[in-house]
Amino acid sequence: MTETLWYAGRGTGVVSLVLLTIVVALGIGARSGRTAFGLPRFAVNMLHRNAALLALVLLAGHVGSLYFDPYAQLRLVDVVLPFTGAYRPFWLGLGTLGFDLILALVASSLLRHRLGARSWRIVHWLAYLCWPVALMHGLQTGSDGDSWWLRTVLALCAALVLAAVAWRLSSPFTQFPARVTRRVRALQETR
Ligand code: HEM
Known about the structure:
Helix content is 77%, strand content 0%. By secondary structure, it is mainly α. 26% of the residues are buried. Protoporphyrin IX containing FE binds at residues 6, 9-10, 13-14, 16-17, 20, 59, 62-63, 66, 72, 74, 78-79, 87, 92, 95-96, 98-99, 102, 134, 137-138, 141-145, 150.
């Protein structure tokens, strides 16, 4: 049983990190206002949101299985309060911090209409902090940190996020649908 919990904890950890990587890339893609993989803008947005919710479910599985795994010696407080754990406290704490940030990102997105666009956007910038924090946790906490396969997966994740961020910072990044551009132009002409 202990072995099963340990395998489940590691597996869900890796899949969560891959999903978070995809969520960041899709978020940047959605923000660009472009279509992707032949999907319209709203579908890219929905994919981004649903991938984030799936990552949260997997993370709950990751934390849950490792909580019951006696080797990790997790206490309830380690799940919410960073850097208090008995097992590799700093690197484990990065996982807890990442988890807290994801909870804040998901909660603020679900309450977006009440929060307002400006506050929601400020919280959403935390995604850029959350992803590297989660990556370092995955690399340094897990039993597979030295294995070639985990390093390859994490290197591919890092390459995808770096490419997406470089694109985000590049000059003609946003592209809005023609009807939006037409409406903005019409508004400018009436002024
Ligand atoms: C952003 C959230 C998180 C992500 C993406 C994540 C991801 C990962 C990954 C990829 C691993 C490496 C698995 C392996 O070596 O095969 C790992 C290990 C681990 N994580 Fe997380 N994690 C997160 C949050 C947490 C939290 C909140 C806790 C508990 C407080 C936690 C506890 C652990 C432990 C104990 C290990 C070591 C498992 C082992 O024995 O190998 N993680 N995590």
